[in-house]
Amino acid sequence: MRSHGSGIAPWKFAQQGTGCVFETAVLVFHPENISIGERVYFGHQTILKGYYKNTMKIGSGTWIGQQCFIHSAGGIEIGEEVGIGPGVKILTSQHKLQDPSVPIMHQKLEFAPVRIGNGCDIGANAVILPGVVLGDFSQVGAGAVVTKSFPDHSIVTGVPAALQRKFE
């Protein structure tokens, strides 16, 4: 492990490959449930919000820009050679709306895993919501809000994200 900032002890992770870089002010919660491949880059002020259950897996050669927030309550798998732009949010839980008389933040959480395939590119400030599967070599435009899954080689943009075309 290499760090330009305060660093994170590699033995605290479930697994950590060689050549990883953690920039200044990267925060990591529940590293025992996070597995990291080789040569993964984490930009300044990124938050890896591991959870007491489920896991976060980040494949080799992945680049995660500054100020990203990745929350793995429902489980996350990020493939190899994935580019994740600055400010991206990946969420795997949300409140289930059951009782209109109860504040939403006090309602039950529901969990759904996210999977981002190999070779994907996620544009700056995109948001990926619980249950989404992005096929291999898919691209998400900057600022998109991804609410559903897309197959391999998809190019998606917008709010909510929609398929613009296939890249084949």
- Please report the first level of CATH classification, the CATH class: Mainly Beta
Helix content: under 10%
The number of distinct structural domains comes to 1
- Contiguous low-pLDDT stretches (5 residues minimum) are 1-6
Strand order of the largest sheet: 1-3-6-9-12-17-20-22-23
Which structural category fits the helices and strands? mainly beta
Query: Helix and strand succession?
Result: EEEEEEEEEEEEEEEEEEEEEEE
Distance between the termini: 36 Å
β-strand percent reads: 35-45%
Summarize the structure.
The chain has 168 residues and is mainly β. It is built from no helices and 23 strands.
Helix and strand topology:
Elements: E1 2-3, E2 15-16, E3 21-22, E4 27-29, E5 34-36, E6 41-42, E7 47-49, E8 56-58, E9 63-64, E10 69-71, E11 76-78, E12 83-84, E13 89-90, E14 93-95, E15 109-111, E16 114-116, E17 121-122, E18 127-128, E19 133-134, E20 139-140, E21 145-146, E22 154-157, E23 162-166
Parallel strand pairs: 1-3, 2-5, 3-6, 4-7, 5-8, 6-9, 7-10, 8-11, 9-12, 10-13, 11-16, 12-17, 13-18, 16-19, 17-20, 18-21, 20-22
Antiparallel strand pairs: 14-15, 22-23
Which short descriptors sum up this protein?
168 residues, mainly beta, UDP N-Acetylglucosamine Acyltransferase, domain 1, nine-stranded mixed β-sheet, six-stranded parallel β-sheet, globular, disordered N terminus
